Amino acid sequence: MHIDIGGEGRYPGAVNVNPSPVTSTTGAPGRPIPNRVAGTGEKLPQGNGSADLITVENTPIRPGAPAEIARVVKPGGEIRLVHPAKYAETAHQQVIQALPPGATVTRTTVGTGDTAITTTIIKLP
What we know:
Distance between the termini: 17 Å
CATH architecture: 3-Layer(aba) Sandwich
Structural class: alpha/beta
Number of domains: 1
Order of helices and strands: EEEEHEHEE
Radius of gyration: 14 Å
Mean pLDDT: 96
């Protein structure tokens, strides 16, 4: 299972966990979000260890979300975080710290200054 927190339908087949029933940024704003499950990153409606892949792209990582991401991702699963670089410095580290030890972390930053974007890929053992 692929869970896209804050997702609006970018990934075909992903479960889009979003409190809003309609898109705000993906495609034409106001269209229904496909495969939507009502929820937030702080209270994921999925069970423990149910996700093979979790993505969080340009959605805030609020307090409580790192623990929920750690609860829902399967052993051997993957987490992909994509945010502006300055925000990612702290937010991505909070997710890493919530996970059990032994995860492999790869960070890539593209661009410079205020337009830089960081992608962090975390693979669990």
